[in-house]
Amino acid sequence: xxxxxxxxxxxxxxxxxxxxxxxxxxxxxxxxxxxxxxxxxxxxxxxxxxxxxxxxxxxxxxxxxxxxxxxxxxxxxxxxxxxxxxxxxxxxxxxxxxxxxxxxxxxxxxxxxxxxxxxxxxxxxxxxxxxxxxxxxxxxxxxxxxxxxxxxxxxxxxxxxxxxxxxxxxxxxxxxxxxxxxxxxxxxxxxxxxxxxxxxxxxxxxxxxxxxxxxxxxxxxxxxxxxxxxxxx
Length: 233
Description:
1 helix; 9-stranded mixed β-sheet; 18 strands; 4-stranded antiparallel β-sheet; Immunoglobulin-like; 6% helix; elongated
């Protein structure tokens, strides 16, 4: 008789032999301690939040995903409302909730026949992101403004577009940040072009993953806002 660990190896080898970049196995083969449970909660506007969970075996960077089977399921509870997550891809599960208020608690549970592993965290504060002015990347500083600020939670800034190389930086939650002229590098070399840029600000907060999971499991809750604007060379 095979034990669960033996079945995992066989399942992974079978998919690897087919040359698949993404490998999968059944949750029936995996003990709870083998689940790398990667939980992100995204609030991208003022009304709706999305719970996104990826289940892997072999750590957070593994490409072997776990499909929930044999009665296993993921549920999320927010302010007394409990929902079951649905699969959007093998090993990827999501569900939406109303409400994005600061300190809203999200509880995500892996429910199995003989045990339940529960993780949780709270949302950071929502904010409004101002749209930057139409400026030259070479000649002008780009000022990014948002409010409210000074929450103490980490913030990450990303800028992307067809005419620049992607820009990403961890910044302080002060309500204002300046990207100095010349920082955003044009992809056109000596012939830079005008294009629309997307600017995203991500205020995030870590929660606590159940200790029964793989130690690379995590919970991160995000308030994200984005704006688009035209950027001159």
